Amino acid sequence: MSPPRHHPGTSLLTRPSLLFRVRESNDAVSWEEFHRLYRRLIYGRARRAGLSHADAEDVAQDVFKCVAETIREFDVNPERGSFRGWLMKLTRWRIADKFNSRKGFPPAVAAAPDVAGFETLIETVCAENADQDEWDREWKQHLLAAATESLARQVNPLHYQVFELYVLHDWPLLRVTRELRVSPASVYVISHRLKKRLKVEVERLQKQLG
């Protein structure tokens, strides 16, 4: 079934920053959109950390509860960092809390002073940097997926099918033309146009989602 098309007025492209709207109002529609866009990222991180489905769901709910309680105080500035960086910290803390509540972390080993303590500090910093890099990779994948879903809701269903098969799934040109009964020229034109639109969608979502 082809994805439904939304009225242009409901598009993320035509609305103020989602973070601003969530922070400044009790708009249920904004919160629903916010939850849809971020839940997969948080849940996926919790599952990859080794939590069960139920525990990962708990982590996601705990993170959203914390966001709801504190987002009005969040102010995007260079010193505080990006919203996604703040969200990563909240997610890490909730995952750690979940493991601790299940006694999933081994007891901390007291490090000897001097060299041992310094080496422990270095390992901790490196682990945090690696975690940040992994979160950024996951964020980019998440952002692309969200932008692609948004694009699917905005464009002609047949055009999106062409784009999905030829660009996203890398089908051979002749197979696409045969399956969808469109000309090679149409495949090229549609794919080129939707690539540009997807890039714009990613950039605008980046601004909206922090």
Describe it.
With 210 residues, the protein is mainly alpha-helical. The chain folds into 2 domains: 1-109, RNA polymerase sigma factor, region 2, helix turn helix motif (Rna Polymerase Sigma Factor, Chain: A), CATH 1.10.1740; 140-210, Arc Repressor Mutant, subunit A. It has 8 helices and no strands. α1 (18-24) crosses α2 (28-48), α2 (28-48) crosses α5 and α6 packs across α8.
**Helix segment count?**
8
Q: Structural class, from helix and strand content?
A: mainly alpha
Radius of gyration equals 21 Å
Unreliable runs, pLDDT <50, ≥5 residues?
Answer: 1-16, 106-127
Number of domains: 2
The whole-number mean of residue pLDDT values reads: 75
Q: Termini distance?
A: 33 Å
Characterize the largest beta sheet: strand count, sense, and whether it forms a barrel: none
**CATH domain topology of the largest domain:** Rna Polymerase Sigma Factor, Chain: A
Number of strands: 0
Helix-strand sequence: HHHHHHHH
List the helices and strands and how they pair.
Layout: H1 18-24, H2 28-48, H3 53-70, H4 83-101, H5 115-154, H6 157-168, H7 173-180, H8 184-209
Descriptive terms for the model:
210 residues, mainly alpha, Rna Polymerase Sigma Factor, Chain: A, Arc Repressor Mutant, subunit A, 2 domains, elongated
Short description:
This protein is mostly helical and 210 residues long. 72% of the residues lie in helices and 0% in strands. The chain has 2 domains: 1-109, RNA polymerase sigma factor, region 2, helix turn helix motif (Rna Polymerase Sigma Factor, Chain: A, Orthogonal Bundle); 140-210, Arc Repressor Mutant, subunit A, CATH 1.10.10.
